[in-house]
Amino acid sequence: MDARFQYVKxxxxxxxxxxxxxxxxxxxxxxxxxxxxxxxxxxxxxEDPKGYICNINLSVPGPKVFAESNETSLEAALVxxxxxxxxxxxxxxxxxxxx
Length: 99
What we know:
Layout: E1 2-8, H1 14-30, E2 36-43, E3 52-59, E4 65-71, H2 74-95
């Protein structure tokens, strides 16, 4: 899957990108209709102790799938966003019909 990462108010992290790519690859194995992913990591310092935000926007057939979470770490925010995306994709796959 083509994944694009963007960092807002923070430095790029190769280890975070690897972790994210592994999670996204698991989603792609489960749902083969995913085209690409845009992942945005943000640090919002006003919200303590939380303030690490992860947005995921997936390109799939039909409307795009989006999830955002605000947690105490970027990894936790990513995992929560992936869970939300997984729920949305389960519903989407159940509605898809084969022709």
